[in-house]
Amino acid sequence: MNTKLIVALCLILLIILFTIQNAEVVTIQFLVWKLSVSRVLMIFFVFTIGVVVGWITNVWSRHRKSRN
């Protein structure tokens, strides 16, 4: 069996287990807003924001270095 396929299947299994264990609803309160959302969706949203901020920081840093 292909190594990439085995790794991909293991990652999918871990993601499924993570999702099942974090399916409960949590309430997020920010200033006057309240939002009830699944914990796994909140974690995914925060992770996505972190990836986007990291990517923007990397692009900005490379742009500054290329200008100098």
What does this protein structure show overall?
The protein has 68 residues and is of the alpha+beta class. It has a domain at 22-68. Helices cover 71% and strands 18% of the residues. The chain is built from two helices and two strands. The chain has helices at residues 3-21, 39-67; strands spanning 25-30, 33-38. The chain has a two-stranded antiparallel sheet with strand order 1-2. The radius of gyration is 18 Å and the shape is flat. The model has no long low-confidence stretch (mean pLDDT 90).
Alpha-beta classification: alpha+beta
**Portion in strands:** 15-25%
Spans of at least 5 consecutive residues whose pLDDT stays below 50 are none
Helix content: over 70%
Number of helices: 2
Distance between the termini: 49 Å
Mean pLDDT: 90
Strand order of the largest sheet: 1-2
SSE series: HEEH
Rounded Rg: 18 Å
Tally of strands:
2
Shape: flat
> How many strands, what sense, and barrel or not for the largest sheet?
2 strands, antiparallel
